[in-house]
Amino acid sequence: MSGARVLVAGATGALGGAITAQPAGRGARVALAGRDRLAHTVRAHSGAPAAGFDARDPGACARAGQAAAAARQGLDAVVVVSGPVTFGAAEETGAEPPRPGPGRSPGAERRAR
User: Fold this and answer.
1) What is the per-residue pLDDT across 30-57, written as a single tens digit (0 to 9) for each?
2) How far apart are CA 56 and CA 85, in angstroms?
3) Is residue 91's pLDDT more than 50?
4) Deepest of 35, 37, 99, 101, by most Cβ within 10 A of its Cβ?
5) What pLDDT is attached to residue 43?
6) Sheet with strand 29-34: strands edge to edge
7) Are 93 and 87 in contact (CB under 8 A)?
8) 96: Cβ–Cβ under 8 A, 6 or more apart, which residues?
9) Spatial distance between the Cα atoms of 4 and 60, rounded to a whole number of angstroms
10) Going by DSSP bridges, is the β-strand pair 29-34/50-52 parallel, antiparallel, or unpaired?
């Protein structure tokens, strides 16, 4: 992983921060994107380029990716860690049950798990 150029979109959350530490700790050249607490995350990864973005705004997502690619002279990987994270039984979290993917029956989806 040493030298790989990795953009972590959602790097400012608890999960995103932990995930960012993995490639950074293995010598990757990370770039950071997040909605809030960006300054704190940049301090943790000194020298990493960073861009603020809101994942609900496609234009902001594109600009964050373009800025990271320009700062790192390309990207080898993009890790997306954004959105709500819930743990527990679906009925306790309010999460919707998974839907079958394209071309897959509900039975095939259950067997794949």
Assistant:
1) 999 988 777 777 778 888 999 988 888 8
2) 16
3) yes
4) 35
5) 79
6) 50-52, 29-34, 5-9, 77-80
7) yes
8) 90
9) 24
10) parallel
Average pLDDT, the chain: 81
User: 47: left (phi > 0), else alpha (psi -120 to 50), else beta?
Assistant: left
3-state DSSP assignment of residue 7: strand
Token pair belonging to 7:
């953009």
- Tell me which residue of 25, 8, 1 sits closest to 81, measured CA to CA: 8
Asked whether 47 and 30 are in contact (CB, 8 A), the reply is no
Q: Whose CA is closest to 29, among 41, 39, 19, 20?
A: 20
Encoded tokens for 26: 């293995």
Helices marked H in the chain: 14-25, 38-44, 58-71, 90-93, 106-112
